[in-house]
Design the sequence.
């Protein structure tokens, strides 16, 4: 069973994503506080971290950077309500090596597809 962590400051979103992913056979932990996610993170524990970009105190990009310090192999998929253009993203965040973005709102079937694709990528 693949293990996923969902980090989003909106409990409604984490609840829906958790239920949807669990329905498709994933083990899911949710965090509504990015600092709590960072504090409890253990290298190799999760197959994928789904992280909201806009969160108070510690945004998704900063959380990503801190997670990479703990585990350089951590796989991350960003969750955002905004359109992401990868080339523009690379210009703004050259040190963030992530290509996987999920745009809110997302259907559970699209979420599962993106999660599987990201986990299977090298």
Sequence:
């Amino acid at each position: 069973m693949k293990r996923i962590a969902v980090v989003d400051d909106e409990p409604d979103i984490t609840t829906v994503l958790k239920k949807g992913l669990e329905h498709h056979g994933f083990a899911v932990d949710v965090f509504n506080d990015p600092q709590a996610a960072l504090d409890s993170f253990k290298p190799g524990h999760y197959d994928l971290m789904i992280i909201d970009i806009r969160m108070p105190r510690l945004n998704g990009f900063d959380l990503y950077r801190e997670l990479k310090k703990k585990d350089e192999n951590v796989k991350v998929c960003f969750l955002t309500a905004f359109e992401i253009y990868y080339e523009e993203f690379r210009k703004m965040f050259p040190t963030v090596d992530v290509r996987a973005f999920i745009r809110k709102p997302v259907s559970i079937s699209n979420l599962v597809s993106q999660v599987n694709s990201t986990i299977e990528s090298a």
The CA atoms of residues 34 and 58 lie 6 Å apart.
